[in-house]
Amino acid sequence: MLFVFAQGATLEIVKLLDLYNTQNGAINTLWNFLSIVSLGLLGFVYKDKESREDWRVKIGLSIGYILFSIGNLVALRRAQGITVAISNAINAAATDTSVTSEVLKAHLAITVFDITVYQLIIVGVVLLAMWLPNIILSLKGKDTGSKINGDNEPAA
Which of 8, 27, 83, 103 has the smallest number of CB atoms closer than 10 Å to its CB? Predict the structure, then answer.
């Protein structure tokens, strides 16, 4: 790597770029966790008719998913905040006369607010997809009670 900076600044830029890459790895890992859990949850719910229509199981799964999502979001916001600070430092270090200034200025990070909105949208879509069968049955006027252990079977 060749940087055209003052001698002391070269080492700092390299450290900042390493930190930026490390933080992006952490953020990608957190997004992967959310993706795996979200798809796994939907796969479990949609695997059979009883899972799709049993609201009692879905309440437990929804609470667990929301708690997981909150923990994931807290970690994601912290990691993204660090990434934004590193990105700002890298951009501040880039000089217009430097050969690498355009490369350094390309190290951008979305805001913590934006990443929060993205995750909330994903969680909302997953919860909606999970509850959609119950919502549809309810709108059609059908019983959406639990089907486990024959709870809704008519009395003989």
Answer: 8
